[in-house]
Amino acid sequence: MEKLVIIPTYNEKDNIRNIIDAVFALRQNFHILIVDDGSPDGTGNIVRNLQQSHSGELFLAERSGKQGLGTAYIHGFKWALDKGYQYIFEMDADFSHSPADLTRLYDACATQGADVSVGSRYVTGGRTENWPWDRAVLSYGASVYVRFVTWMRVKDATAGFVCYKRQVLEAINLDAIRFVGYAFQIEMKFTAWKLGFKLKEVPITFKDRKEGYSKMSKGIVKEGILGVLKIQWESLFRKYERRVRNSE
């Protein structure tokens, strides 16, 4: 019960079996929690069938309707803490994140002093492959924007390939995390940084999905632009840390 990979899904039937098999093929004792938002394409049914051959290491949390990336991860974080996991990972289902890099994220936290390790496209050695130019410009522009506004020294603040030590998630009032789209990734890193935890970026190759479709929307972009300004403004006052710090 040491390492848990949380994978949120919505209509990922083309990817889910392969991504689960790839994680278990590492043979590094990673467990997997799929948080499925009622996928109408039958993603949840595929996971249930796979559980028969992965008892005690593959878990499924099903929610009614599409509720957003952020709430899916918060659900997974709380589940992981309740079960006693020590290292909790975020990863996409679409192979844009290579399962092989899970061990490098783990090592950064387990042996290299990081509290949060981030699979980064924008540090030396990191890169993207087969990404549409508009998405690449939007992503890199967002990373520059976040650094400029927040002063946080993380070059890939929107990255969704992350490992958290248990102590980090225990210290955060998860119910105070407000964003539900990709800005959730920024808010979690920003909160961990503000609470004094050490973040380390690990270079990865990010590949565009081969199957399925992107969940990006104009609303998600707007949430990121305005949300970053809001959390930075709030962080200038001590009430921000009181709100996001877990007092239990």
TrEMBL record:
Q: Where is the Glycosyltransferase 2-like domain?
A: 5-171
Kindly indicate whether the keyword RNA-binding belongs to this entry: no
Provide the alphabetized UniProt keywords. Glycosyltransferase, Transferase
CDD domains per the UniProt record, alphabetical: DPM1_like (cd06442)
Which InterPro entries does the entry link to?
A: DPM1-like, Glyco_trans_2-like, Nucleotide-diphossugar_trans
Glycosyltransferase among keywords: yes
- Gene3D superfamilies registered for this protein in UniProt: Spore Coat Polysaccharide Biosynthesis Protein SpsA, Chain A
Q: What does the sequence similarity comment in the record state about its family?
A: Belongs to the glycosyltransferase 2 family.
Query: Which PANTHER family does this UniProt record tie to the protein?
Result: DOLICHOL-PHOSPHATE MANNOSYLTRANSFERASE SUBUNIT 1 (PTHR43398)
Q: What is this protein called?
A: Polyprenol monophosphomannose synthase
